[in-house]
Amino acid sequence: MEQIDPEKNFSESGVCNLNGNAWIKPPMGWFKANVDEAATLRSLQAGCGGVFRDAMGAWLFGFTKSLGTCSAQMVEEWSVFEALQCAWEMGIRKLILESDAQIVLDLIADPDYNSGSLLMVEIRELRNRD
């Protein structure tokens, strides 16, 4: 695994470039969580995880969760839920959440969308807490 050298990989603008992929630091006073999901086709087992970084790009903590068998959208919803719950428990209130499941993030933000999912209700409650 390649080691990240902050002097070499981070520019003054806060962009980290590793093999052509860029990660942008959150604004000062904010945190960023990047979440991802995984599943095996053979056993249909799924899981999710995420990492949290501060405005300097420093790794703070991460999480993983084994989910068993569930739909692709449910795995994506779980990754968002777990990230929001971790942020709340750690006292993080200014959070930028990044996921490759943009459609799930869009559905969470859409007040007219109702999937009937209790997990989606929990996500919205966490998102709207003060």
Automatic annotation (TrEMBL):
- Positions of the RNase H type-1 domain: 36-113
The protein's matches in Pfam families, at most eight in alphabetical order, are given as: RVT_3
- InterPro entries annotated for this entry? RNase_H-like, RNase_H-like_dom_plant, RNaseH-like_sf, RNaseH_domain, RNaseH_sf
Q: Which domain of life is it from?
A: Eukaryota
Q: What molecular functions are annotated in GO for this chain?
A: nucleic acid binding; RNA-DNA hybrid ribonuclease activity
What PANTHER family does the record point to?
Answer: OS05G0353850 PROTEIN (PTHR47723), PUTATIVE-RELATED (PTHR47723:SF13)
Q: What is this protein called?
A: RNase H type-1 domain-containing protein
Task: Record the organism.
Answer: Acacia crassicarpa
